[in-house]
Amino acid sequence: MDLITVDKSKCLKCGLCVADCPACILDMGPEGPECHVDRGCMSCGHCVAICPAGALDNKYTPRAEMVSVPQARWTAGDAYDFLRSRRSVRQFKPGAPSDEDLRKLLEICRYAPTAGNSQGMYFTIIRNPGTLAAIRQAVADWMQSEVDAGTENKRYFKAVLHMYNEKKVDIITRNAPCLVFLSARRLNITGVSNSEQTLAYAELYAPTLGLGTTIAGFVQACGIAGYKPLLDLVGVPAKQKLVGCMMAGYPRVRYQLMPERQHLKCEFKD
């Protein structure tokens, strides 16, 4: 198999690459790691990244395309404060984010963890005011159909629709100037969970770019339910399914404090 190449003059035969391979397709041979079933490779790059001697290469994740892990690390306190200071932004300035800022935001999403390193996230960015208005109405129509059908969401959606229809408050997309939709292939059974992790990366990175974000939960639920009018507005291909949606824009507000949360619920069992 030509999946991996080993510089035998450098290989320490430490076995780290073999032990760390998620697909368990590497074995330690007399002269170093070997692979006899390369079809199972997840292209995660762990075998190359973990090698302390720089002896291993992988045709799917070439060493030449990798960069060294930064030596400078945050303290636990820095990381804690950074994560705790993230806020869901629901008040945006009128202008939509630029192509450049959105590309920067979504670029980091390529590195979010996905089941089996499946990756495969497709992004659709919508900023046209008319299309955004049509999306809001489509989601409201879906909610009304859920109410009419007496589903378990009936009581909640009735309250949302009262706010949207009677009080004229856009509780569905919060007047966001931009919606980012995520799609995955229909056969990808972990598409929704992959989307959640992908959006978490985007939401954490957004403030460093001067952007504000929040998950568009109503729109996302409508899309995951497969509501065709919404899928048509977004333009989801037949071989894909909508798995996530996020509002994005330049925030109109700045938070000064970090609110408390419920206490930790944790139990250790033997």
SSE layout and pairings?
Layout: E1 4-6, H1 16-20, E2 26-29, E3 32-35, H2 46-50, E4 56-58, H3 76-84, H4 99-107, E5 122-126, H5 129-148, H6 154-166, E6 179-185, H7 191-205, E7 212-215, H8 217-224, H9 228-234, E8 240-249
Antiparallel strand pairs: 1-4, 2-3, 5-6, 6-8, 7-8
Helix pairs in contact: 5-6, 5-9
Characterise the protein shown here:
This protein is α+β, with helices and mostly antiparallel strands. The strands form three sheets. Strands 5-6-8-7 form a four-stranded antiparallel β-sheet, sandwiched between helices. The chain starts with a strand and ends in a 21-residue tail after the last strand. The chain has nine helices and eight strands. A hairpin with a 2-residue loop joins strand 2 and strand 3 (32-35). It folds into two domains: 4-65, Alpha-Beta Plaits; 85-249, NADH Oxidase (3-Layer(aba) Sandwich).
Give the CATH superfamily of the largest domain.
NADH Oxidase
Alpha-carbon distance between the two ends: 45 Å
Give the ordered list of helices and strands.
EHEEHEHHEHHEHEHHE
What strand order characterises the main sheet? 5-6-8-7
List the domain count as a whole number.
2
Largest sheet: 4 strands, antiparallel
User: Number of helical segments?
Assistant: 9
CATH architecture of the largest domain: 3-Layer(aba) Sandwich
Principal-axis shape equals elongated
User: What is the CATH class designation of the largest domain?
Assistant: Alpha Beta
Briefly note the CATH topology name of the largest domain. Answer: NADH Oxidase
Report the count of strand segments: 8
Measured by DSSP, the beta-strand proportion falls in 5-15%
Which segments are poorly predicted (pLDDT under 50) over 5 or more consecutive residues?
A: none
Assign a percent range to the helix content.
Answer: 25-40%
Which structural class matches the secondary elements?
Answer: alpha+beta
Evaluate the radius of gyration.
23 Å
Kindly report the average pLDDT value.
Answer: 96
